[in-house]
Each structure stands twice: as C-alpha cells, then as structure tokens.
Predict the 3D structure of the following.
Amino acid sequence: MEQVIKALSELAVPLVKADGGELYLVSVTGEDVHVHLTGTCAGCPGATMTRERLLEPTVHGVAPKLAVKVTTGWRVPEGATKVE
C-alpha cells in the first residue's frame, strides 16, 4: 500500500492538480485500488482517459496485478484519504 501511495503522490497527483483536481485513496486490497477524483475532475468525461493513461500505468508500475477503480464526484467517499 505504501508503494502505491508513493507512486500516486509522485507521478499522478501533480498532473491531477495541474488540471485543478484532487486525488483521494479510498481503499487498497490485494486485488484492487480504488481512487476518487474530485475538484475540476468531478464528473469529468476525461476521467476514463485519466484512469487508462495515468492511474493504471502508475499503479501497475509498483503493483502490476492490482485493478484500478476510479470514481469521481464532489462528495469524497467516507474514509478516503487525500493523496498529497
């Protein structure tokens, strides 16, 4: 989990922030990682591209077998942690 957070923090967060968004880690299990995008990314039609071209390669670089689940919206899921 620590490696996933570090990779997201170093690689994904700066790009998401550059577009006015924020990235939250909702959960990490042995099978998947769930992240939530908010800010200007909430409801953005580009969220699928963000998942496929940014988040999946970032996560798979440290944990190749994890599936990446992405949700968006203004409301942050309960228990989610902002990735800085």
The domain at 2-79 is CATH 3.30.300.130 (GMP Synthetase; Chain A, domain 3).
